[in-house]
Amino acid sequence: MQTQELSSQRYGRKLRSDFLFAKDFTNMNHGSFGTYPLTVRDTFRSFQDQVEARPDPFIFYDYPVLLDEARAEVAKLLNAPVGEVVFVPNATTGINTILRNLVFQPGDVIIYFATTYGACQKSVTYITETTPAEDFKIQYTYPVSDTFLVDSLQDAISEIRNQGKNPRLALFDTVVSMPGVRMPYERFLAVCKREGILSCMDAAHAIGMLKPKDVDMSILQPDFFVSNCHKWLYVPRGCAVLYVPTKHHSMMRSTIPTSHGFIPTPRPGAAAAYNPLPTNNKSPFVVNFEFVGTIDNAPYLCVPRAIQYRKERLGGEEAVADYLWTLARRSGQIVCKILGTEVLENEDNTLQNCAFSNVRLPLDAAAIQSMAETHWMLRTLFYQHNTSMVVLWYAGVFWTRLSAQVYLEEADFERGGHLLLELCGRVTNGDFLPACQVQSKL
Predict the structure, then answer these.
(1) Which residue range forms the structural domain that includes residue 379?
(2) Which terminus of the chain has a smaller tally of CB atoms within 10 A, N or C?
C-alpha cells in the first residue's frame, strides 16, 4: 500500500484525537521529547494507581512480573533474547552506565564523532578526567558521505594504534539528534568487529523510528545498544531499553545509581553481599537493573501497551516507519520550496533515511548578533502560533529540524514553512521583541 493511501486511510491529523495535545497545537518537534496516546496514558495511570493502592506488594512482587512482560515485548521488537535487555530511564543514563562500568587502562581510547549528542560527549570527557582513558573525536561537518564517515573511523583506529595506544571503544549514533540525520551505523559495526574494538550504539532515535530490520540485534550484534522508548515508540518519559549481549554481562557490574543488585568483589573475611529484595532465578544482570532506587517505574510497564497500539491502530512498525520516512522527505521539500533554500543531504541520499528533515533558514548569520533572535522565533512559534519546530545553528548557518509523525501530514509542514518564512523576515528586518516579552495569545 502506498504512503499516500495510508495517509488518507490511517494517518494524518485525524489521529490527533488519539493523543493528548492541547486544542490546535501542532507538534512538529516530536523528536525532542516524544509523546504518547491516550490509551497508553490510561495504562500509565493504572499502574501508578496500583502501586499507590498497595505499595509494598506491588513493588516487591507484582512489579517484577510486569517488568518481565515489558522486557519480553521489547526483546521481540529488537529480536534479542529477553535476558539481554533491561530498562533504564533514558539513553544518556544508558551510555553513562556502559562507560562508567568499563575498566580502562592507560592508553585506552574512546572514539566518538563530532555530532555525538552533547551530553554523551560530556560523559566521555568525564571518563577521561576520572580514569586513565583518553578520547579521540572524529571531526567533520555535514553533508559528508557515508563512506567518508566509515573511512574516518577506520583512519582513527589506525592513528591511535600508530601512537601505541589501544582503541578500546567506538561510540556512535544510529540517528544524530542535531542535525537530525542517519549515520551508517551498520558499517561502523562492521569496522568495530573487524578491528576487535567495542561498539557502543547511542540509538536514542531508533526504536519506533527505524524499520524492524534496522534494529534487529541478531543481525547487528553490537556490543552495547541503548534506545529511548519515550521518543518514537509512544512510551511515557522516561524509558529506554539497554541491550547487552550475555558475553558482556560481567562488565556491567553496577547500575546508576549503584543499588541492591550490585555484587561486590569478594574480600577475605568479608560477609557475602545482602540483597533485601525477593529472590528469583534471573541472571545477575537482570536482577541488577530490576530495582534501582525508588522512582516511578510505571513508564517501563507501558511498553507492551504502546507496541499493541502501534500494531492494532497504526499497522505495525514497518508501516509506521514507511509513513514517517516518506513524510519527512516530503516535508523537507515543502519547507525548502517555501523558504527558497536547501535540505541537508549527502551524495548518497541517505541522511534522510529516518523521520527527520533539516532545512536551511533564510537568515544571514553575520547579521545575527546573538541567539536572542532564535529564542524569539521559538517562543513566537510556541505562544503565538501554537506550534513547535526546532531552530538550530549548524555548519555556520541556521536550520530547522522537522520531525515527521503519524498525527502530521503535508499541510502541517506547509503552514510551518510559511510561519518560518514570516519570522525569518521579521528577524532580518529587526522586527522582533526580546524572547521574554513574547506572551501567549492562545
Answers:
(1) 1-32+316-429
(2) N
Q: Tell me the C-alpha distance between 210 and 214, whole Å.
A: 6
Residue among 121, 118, 148, 169 at smallest CA distance from 351: 148
Handedness of CA 96, 97, 102, 103 (dihedral sign): positive
Q: Report d(CA 423, CA 425) in Å as an integer.
A: 5
Query: Considering the domain boundaries, does residue 440 fall inside one?
Result: no
C-alpha cell at 184: 551508517
386-422 pLDDT, tens digit each: 999 999 989 889 999 999 999 999 999 999 999 999 9
Distance from C-alpha of 123 to C-alpha of 282, rounded to nearest angstrom: 30
Of 308, 325, 354, the residue at which a domain comes to its end is: 308
Which of 397, 313, 403 has its CA nearest to residue 363?
397
Any idea which residue has 518514537 for its cell? 232
DSSP-derived letter for residue 102 is S
261 vs 28: CA distance, rounded Å? 41
Name the average pLDDT for the chain: 93
End-to-end CA distance of the chain: 39
Q: Same domain for 298 and 170?
A: yes
What was the pLDDT predicted at 364?
A: 83
Mean pLDDT of 190-205: 98
pLDDT (0 to 100) of residue 20: 96
Rounded average pLDDT over 208-231: 97
Return the ∠ at Cα 187 (arms to 184 and 191), rounded to 5°. Answer: 135
Angle at 230 between CA 184 and CA 189, to 5 degrees: 20
Kindly tell me the sign of the dihedral angle through the C-alpha atoms of 134, 140, 141, 142: negative
Q: What is the pLDDT of residue 271?
A: 81
Average pLDDT of the segment spanning 100-118 = 97
Q: Give the side-chain half-sphere CA count within 13 A for 412.
A: 25
Cβ proximity of 216 and 77 under 8 Å: no
